[in-house]
Amino acid sequence: MTAYTAIVSARFRMLLQYRAAAMAGVVTQVFWGLIRVMIFEAFYRSTTASQPMELMDVITYVWLGQAFLAMIPWNTDPEIRQMVRTGTVAYEMLKPVGLYNLWYARALATRTAPTLLRSIPIFVLGMLFFGMKAPESMVSTVGFAAAMAGAIILSAAISTVLNISLMWTISAEGVGRLVPAMVILFSGLAIPIPLFPDWAQKVLHVLPFAGLSDYPFRLYVGQIPPENLWMVLAHQIGWTILLAFLGKYMVSRGIKRMTVQGG
Amino acid sequence: MSRITVENLVKTFRVAERQPGMWGALKGVASRKHRVIRALDGISFTLDAGELVGYIGPNGAGKSTTVKILSGILVPDSGRVEILGKVPWKDRIRYVSCIGVVFGQRTQLWWDLPVIESFDLLKDIYRVPDAAHVKTRDELIDLLNLKGFLDTPVRQLSLGQRMRCDLAASLLHEPEILFLDEPTIGLDAVSKLAVRDFIRKVNREKEVTVILTTHDMDDIETLCNRVMVIGNGRILSDGTLGDLRKRVTGERRLIVQLAEDGMDVEDKDAELVRREGNRIEFRFDPDRIPAATLISRLASKYPVRDLFVENPPIEEIIAELYNDLGSA
Question: Which homologous superfamily does the CATH classification assign to the domain defined by B46-246?
């Protein structure tokens, strides 16, 4: 195994131990899912205009969002936060690995393991009791799976940039407050992106956040035809590469600052 | 061939100064005064392969700063460092794979993983071939007696167990140089002995060069053939423990045990240090009066039951050195 796959797998195994947290997550997410579904039902019942998305699709979209919430890069890594605050972060540099790659590997595991524990029960509950529908077709299932893989890679890239930014905003307060609101709104988790005004949709489709949930979820419900999967993947991978460049640049600046001014 | 060359190392830190009180805090918002602290002020030394050096000094003297620079974590303002032909802060990734570092106050093991899994992870991070890894690992497990808690998560280990595991972790990739920053801090007597024993073995048998910072003078006395004392960012003394003793003080101690209590004992060439019941401690200068002369003179005058000569405790020597520094 290479250093990075070893880190991913060790962290993954470690995170799988947190079953109680996952249980609590499932309960919370189901609760919020129900509330959100009720809001959308009320909204659809009271409107007479035709909507860009059918209610059935919206409900499925909401449950997908609840199932994959843990994958959304809406927070910073508490351990890295701790490391930066106490200065232990300098000791990460004693390992013969690049800091960006090390933290990207961490983020990849942090975003996948808890999601795996939470998404399956929510999927089952959503399908059995809460009106979530199965994927549009076999092809869209494959498309959805591929886009979810892309979403995880992208999510880890965004998480890593957020974590690196902790090297400057030591208290992490600003990042911790601004980012969740932004990510949850722009990724379509609060309101599906197709329900945004046209001008906003144009912007949101370009931003990286649509690749986290909106694109894969719309592939699932059939709102994006499977033949457009490549566009989704190009968007996700393009942003991942761009963010990796940004992250590496930030790391080199951050290390310079740390090594000149002390931990 | 010296493995470590350090020349004229200087490191300064800028510290924002805040004036006390509300008014001071408000002034700090508008303009901030910075004070420059010279943590290292021209440090130079060389180390040969296989040395075991103690690096001591009071808190804030610059010990940790030196170790951080030598391990590639900090970049100095000026000066030259060459270790194993490399400059630590340049080409960091290649350099750190040739050294081992243990910080007594921290752990490089993964908190939630069993010890053995941390070792496996380090194998992958340092790209150690499997066969070599198994050999080194088993040897270290044996030497440090880690068998009993290899499957325990690190967070559940006692400090002594954790330190032994950290020592093993730092040597898994067989580094040529080992930096130990206060490895015995907070350990109980038994663990300290185990750690010291291990450090000595690694140094002698594996010929690993060891730089050890500590506040525990027993570490120095039992381990180090060379001691560097640092204070205010400068090297105050560099040599064997004997040299250090001589430099600060040539005095010896004579401890006399009397057969009777409450007797006054005096001698014109010896000074009384302390007295506990019938146990009396003198200090004397062996250049002024040879120990044999003093002993026979005292023995002929007083009912001596037992006596012995010893060197002043290393703690007192160091304290004296630090004091000289303060008054200078």
Answer: P-loop containing nucleotide triphosphate hydrolases (3.40.50.300)
